[in-house]
Design brief:
Helix content: 40-55%
Largest sheet: 5 strands, parallel
Strand order of the largest sheet: 2-1-3-4-5
Strand content: 5-15%
Number of strands: 7
CATH superfamily of the largest domain: Toll/interleukin-1 receptor homology (TIR) domain
Distance between the termini: 39 Å
Number of domains: 2
Shape: elongated
CATH architecture of the largest domain: 3-Layer(aba) Sandwich
Order of helices and strands: EHEHEHEHEHEEHHHH
Number of helices: 9
Structural class: alpha/beta
Length: 236
């Protein structure tokens, strides 16, 4: 499925508001991705969400008191910020983000959608998104050009004299170890990310750099990179 420019994130108690937003945006020819409607039957739910966020231009976050209690929403917002996807909180209640969400949302533009009725707020949202989507997108995250890996800003870069390139294919034991190391920092998404990165990485350093870029903390990223280098060096 082709990427859609708007990803709508919401906590379950706000489902009605979220689907109301989608209906209003799509009536204005703004394509949206929302779960569970757009999850392919029998597909890997986490993988589809990761891909949908990566392909979006903006995440509309339906924000309420229940949002603060949703680990799933926090993971989606964290993923969007990491992928440099613009996050637009559409605040349907007069509440502030929890400390964990505030870290990701403190510099974002907010759109207050109260008091009711919602229609004027929907209209402002449509206007904002139409203006935003008219601006050509900049290339987010890592890019691969002619087989060369370019790390995203802040990613760990290869140190001279560490690892030489490995073959394009990595064995199952290597991938499982990398997955286990990464899962200690970002959780179950590691499995999907390792599989995807290994399919295109030009060598060990490229693979480690791409996976390390998924870790927000610089100190934790360095620990991950060093552990992976030591492991892969021992496998040569």
């Amino acid at each position: 499925m082709a990427p859609r420019p708007v990803f709508v994130s919401y906590s379950q108690p706000d489902r009605e508001a979220a689907f109301g937003i989608v209906a209003r945006l799509e009536s204005s020819a703004i394509e949206c991705w929302i779960a569970p409607r757009d999850v392919t039957p029998a597909a890997d739910w986490a993988a589809e969400i990761v891909e949908a966020i990566a392909g979006a231009r903006v995440m509309v976050l339906v924000f309420s008191s229940s949002t603060n209690d949703s680990p799933q929403v926090r993971r989606e917002v964290e993923r969007a910020v990491h992928r440099r996807v613009a996050v637009l909180p559409f605040r349907i209640e007069d509440v502030l983000p929890s400390r964990s969400l505030e870290y990701f949302l403190s510099s974002q533009h907010w759109l207050d959608a109260f008091p009711p009725p919602l229609e004027p707020h929907y209209a402002r949202l449509v206007d904002y998104l139409e203006a935003l989507l008219r601006v050509p997108p900049s290339a987010p995250g890592a890019t691969a050009v002619s087989g060369t890996y370019t790390a995203p800003m802040g990613a760990a870069t290869p140190a001279s004299g560490t690892l030489g390139p490995l073959p394009m294919m990595f064995d199952a034991a290597q991938l499982h170890r990398l997955e286990s190391e990464l899962a200690g920092y970002i959780g179950p998404l590691a499995r999907h990310l390792v599989k995807r990165a290994a399919a295109t990485a030009a060598g060990a350093e490229a693979l480690i750099g791409e996976l390390g870029a998924e870790i927000e903390s610089e100190a934790e990223r360095r620990r991950f990179v060093n552990a992976c280098r030591q492991f892969l060096r021992g496998r040569e």
